[in-house]
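TASK: fixed-backbone design
INPUT:
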């Protein structure tokens, strides 16, 4: 994939949120800004344009002139800090943006020969703040607009994109969903708690909270937890997965391969444990001293059968 830097626009007045600090609003236990930073973790340099705040990973800070001057002024402040020939531009309110979409944007920019690759939402609208740009054409057009209008403050984004040679990519479901209102925030929070999403969301949140950048086979770990719970005892599941992680760290690299190997060994042990328990149960005879059951007496007429449920 083409090397790239990233600019995340985290300013703005958030008027439809009543002036709330939108990048800091939590969705799935993580600030919106950190969710976006997670999607572009492969960037060589990440510039956040807006007020300084704590973030899940290191970034370079910039501020538009004047503060609150709009997206083109913010872009101009951010592009002054980037070094790569390609730059990913994102708004800070995209809760469902994923690395897959980022790779598509950067990949399309690298192979299309165009000056920019931007996402189009399900209604066909261009999303210039979910886009990848060639850095020099972006700088050129921003400089020309500043000269023409005297300032970039308050200018709409379409003045920039209409001057660039664009490639367009259809958005995956929810990739361009942004949070402009409290209703949007509520919808996003509900969405991540749906059955098909909650586990991935939780694992990603835990990794970010603990500062872990490790992609492992969560399916294998869940299978291991199931085998330990069923074949040994229910409390064995969380303890076993903890020990797998500890063993992987002790192995030196602590990477996905080390986790997979530790999980494989522990799963094999859990299966052997379960097999032994099954064998023991099948080989066990009647308890010592127990009398063999006698013949079942037939019921007298009008008397209930002792084998029937009463």
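OUTPUT:
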């Amino acid at each position: 994939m083409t090397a790239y830097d990233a600019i995340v626009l985290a300013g703005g007045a958030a008027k439809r949120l009543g002036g709330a600090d939108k990048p800091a609003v939590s969705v799935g236990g993580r600030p919106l800004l950190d969710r976006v930073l997670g999607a572009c973790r492969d960037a060589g340099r990440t510039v956040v344009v807006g007020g300084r705040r704590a973030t899940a990973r290191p970034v370079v800070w910039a501020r538009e002139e004047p503060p609150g001057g709009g997206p083109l002024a913010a872009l101009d402040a951010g592009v002054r800090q980037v070094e790569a020939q390609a730059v990913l531009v994102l708004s800070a309110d995209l809760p469902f943006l994923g690395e897959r979409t980022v790779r598509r944007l950067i990949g399309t920019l690298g192979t299309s020969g165009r000056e920019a690759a931007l996402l189009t939402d399900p209604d066909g609208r261009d999303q210039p703040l979910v886009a990848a740009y060639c850095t020099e054409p972006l700088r050129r057009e921003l400089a020309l607009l500043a000269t023409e209008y005297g300032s970039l403050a308050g200018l709409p984004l379409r003045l920039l994109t209409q001057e660039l040679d664009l490639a367009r990519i259809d958005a995956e479901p929810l990739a361009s969903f942004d949070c402009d209102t409290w209703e949007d925030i509520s919808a996003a929070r509900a969405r991540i708690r749906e059955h098909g999403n909650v586990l991935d969301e939780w694992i990603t949140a835990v990794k970010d909270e603990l500062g872990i950048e490790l992609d492992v086979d969560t399916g294998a770990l869940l299978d291991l937890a199931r085998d330990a719970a069923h074949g040994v005892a229910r409390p064995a599941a969380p303890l076993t997965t903890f020990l797998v992680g500890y063993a992987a760290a002790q192995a030196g690299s602590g990477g996905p391969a080390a986790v997979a190997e530790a999980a494989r060994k522990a799963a094999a042990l859990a299966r052997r444990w379960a097999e032994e328990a099954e064998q023991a149960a099948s080989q066990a005879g009647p308890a010592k001293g127990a009398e063999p059951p006698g013949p079942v007496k037939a019921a007298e007429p009008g008397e209930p059968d002792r084998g029937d449920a009463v």
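COMMENT: The radius of gyration is 29 Å.
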